[in-house]
Design goal:
This protein has 155 residues and is of the alpha/beta class. Helix content is 30%, strand content 17%. The longest helix has 15 residues. Belongs to the class IV-like SAM-binding methyltransferase superfamily. RNA methyltransferase TrmH family. TrmL subfamily.
Length: 155
């Protein structure tokens, strides 16, 4: 059993490193969609992921379309501040994909609009600022998905 975490064009190496660490510890696969805002050799990325990098199940794609083509028929959720549904209302299951956008601007319209019913969000009381940190949001949503699957990797 696994969960698929997708980062669409991530920009901040420390966030990606933290997310990689979360993926290793939850048995989730990390998918990165280019262009990346950093080198995978960057010391901040490695530092944030600590010594977890050898254990990370990682795939990198040249485009979002390449990812979707490879996983036709899979269920995709889109984490966005524009989502109408809260993340805990989604019905996560094994092998689902959760797509997270760029730190600076989130997911592009064409991705969000491809399936508005699968757009989910983490509620925030103060909406005058942008949003939660990406790595925090990934952890919140990933653990809810794993909770719904009865924490399959934690047993």
């Amino acid at each position: 059993m696994s969960l698929n975490i997708v980062l669409f064009q991530p920009e901040i190496p420390q966030n990606t490193g933290n997310i990689a660490r979360t993926c290793v510890l939850t048995g989730s696969k990390l998918h990165l969609i280019k262009p990346l805002g950093f080198s995978l050799d960057e010391k901040h990325l490695r530092r944030a992921g600590l010594d977890y990098w050898p254990y990370l199940d990682l795939s990198i794609y040249d485009s979002y379309e390449e990812l979707r083509e490879k996983y036709k028929g899979s269920t995709f959720y889109f984490s966005t501040t524009h989502g109408k549904n809260f993340y805990h209302e989604a019905k996560f299951k094994d092998d689902d994909f959760i797509v997270f956008g760029r730190e600076s601007c989130g997911l592009p319209d064409y991705i969000r609009e491809s399936d508005p019913e699968k757009c989910i969000r983490v509620p925030m009381i103060n909406t005058t600022t942008r949003s939660l940190n990406l790595s925090n949001t990934v952890a919140i949503v990933a653990y809810e998905a794993l909770r719904q699957m009865n924490f399959p990797v934690m047993k």
